[in-house]
Amino acid sequence: MGDLLGVAVLGAGHMGADHIRRIDRVVSGARVAAVADPEVERAEEAAAGLDGVSLHGDPVAALDAPGVAAVLVASPGPAHEEALLAAFDRGLPVLCEKPMVPDSAGALRVVEAEARHGRRLAQIGFMRRYDAEYLRLKALLDGGTLGRPLMLHCTHRNVSSPGHFTSAMLVNSSVSHEIDAARWLLGQELTAVTVLRPTPSAGAPEGLLDPQFVLFETEGGALVDVEVFVNCGFGYQVRCEAVCEKGSARIGEEHTMVVTTAGGAREEVAQDYLVRFADAYDREVQTWVDATRRGEVTGPDVWDGYAASVVAEAGVRALETGGRVAVDLAPRPALYARFSR
Question: What percentage of the chain has pLDDT greater than the value 90?
Fold first, then answer.
């Protein structure tokens, strides 16, 4: 076990428990050394059957547990800033689930703290950058054979939303993935946001503005639209079509099993993001572990996390006001490349 990277997993809910399973059963070169969750019983359940794991109610205590050499943050977004700053203070490399920090002021504090440290320590969990289809689309756009990208058409649908979900969370939680994917695919910052609100679906909980239509403008003159519908009722769907000067490319067409029987055919539709993006999560965590063992930090950086928080915050203002809201980013520290890979 001494040859394995000891990881403290902060948060043992839906996402954290899946990462604990992933590190134990899928990823090579790492082990779960500590698990922290305010509900210690949940940490016990997620870590059941694992050897050499310490359990904690306090996430900071988990960072100081024996054998911990890296941190995976999968707690709710409001807890991320404290965890990231504590990890930076200890020089521990971190993989932090999105949103890095929900509010832009807190996200900027994380940027400034890592910049003061003088080297990258954190990778942010925008796992679509590790999805095979997104990687193919990125390579195609970078290759230039289709010419300049003019528009991205995106779809983000969930079967249903959790009970605590708010109208603002359609933008700052669900669409945060599209925010990062658009920046990464196009190599452009997003400069303005408009949110249109159709009549809510009958399937949406009372008071929830669902679906929404989000329109982003970019510094290069491209447009990005996102249909976000978190109570569609039938499946989890993520699609993206890039429309360029010389052609278009579309991903996310559910390459799953089709069952044909007498009188018709039935195609499976994923019901959960952990199913649709299972390979991407596996690849993301394995890449992080491999880089950490080499003493490197790769992938989406803290600036990417900050930019996503600023754009999402502008999107929530656009939702509330019904108007177009400009995106105002702070100056980028020299530590961060214009667009990380």
Answer: 90
User: pTM of the full predicted structure?
Assistant: 0.93
Q: Where are the beta strands (DSSP E) in 49-189?
A: 54-56, 70-73, 94-97, 122-125, 149-157
Amino acid symbol at 262: A
Give the confidence band of 193 by pLDDT, cuts at 50, 70, 90. Answer: very high
Burial 77-101 (b: 16+ CB within 10 A, else e): bebbbbbbbbbbeeebbbbbbbbbb
Give the residue among 67, 99, 104, 68 at the shortest CA–CA distance from 86.
68
Strand order from edge to edge, sheet including 190-196 = 247-251, 237-244, 149-157, 223-229, 212-218, 190-196, 325-326
Give one word for 166, left, alpha or beta, with left for phi > 0 and alpha for psi -120 to 50: beta
CB atoms within 10 A of CB 337: 11
- Residue 23 — pLDDT band, cuts 50, 70, 90? very high
- What is the CB-side half-sphere exposure of residue 152 using CA atoms within 13 A? 33
Within 8 A by CB and 6+ apart from 51, the residues are none
* C-beta pairs of 264-271 under 8 Å, 24+ apart in sequence: 269/234, 269/235, 269/236, 269/237, 270/235, 270/236, 270/237, 271/159, 271/235, 271/236
Do 100 and 128 form a contact (C-beta atoms < 8 A)? Answer: no
